[in-house]
Predict the structure.
Amino acid sequence: MKILYFAHVAKTLGRREDEVKFPAPVTADALWERLLALRPALAQYRATIHLARNNEYAGPADQFADGDEVALIPPVSGG
Amino acid sequence: MWSEIIFMEARLPSPPLPPETVRGIAGAWAEFHGYVRADEKGQKISALRYDIYEPMARKQLAAHIEELASKHGLVAVRFWHRTGVVPIGESSVYVAVAAPHRREAFAALAELMDRLKKDVPIWKAESLPA
């Protein structure tokens, strides 16, 4: 599963993406657990980040599977 | 309904006339240009760096445009947004909408800008100091 980072989150991590693998689909909480282990600096942003799955905001019941493109969306500020 | 969504690193060009398809239908073509100011959250800056998650931004914007077109009877929408570094005084966003009458055009334009700032994945990623 491809994980994408943007804006100040990408700057803090010094990277724009990661690749993670799961044997079966996972919940948002399980995904976060893995991401925080991989990139501890994400902890400061977790409360304000929305997850998007394949270009749509994810709902609380959504599962994330290999092959999905998951984006970490911090508060937007276009215009 | 005619629509166009473009993200570009280069300076926004002078916008063209409304598309030919709205000729004789649209009585109103309302435009908004957003510019980068020298003051960002109390800091003096020289430029903003924008970041866009383009495929999702395009999808979200297209959905908003469709909804607003139904709600306000829009016949055309043009949406341009800069990405990368945009110096102060330059335009970061240009939005134009065509509708039969001005009230719908003004309302839809304001609503599209509000929606842009609510959930479209575009960010002022960084302020470059003055």
Summary: Chain A has one domain: 2-73. Residues 28-38 of chain A form the longest helix (11 residues). The mean pLDDT of chain A is 97.
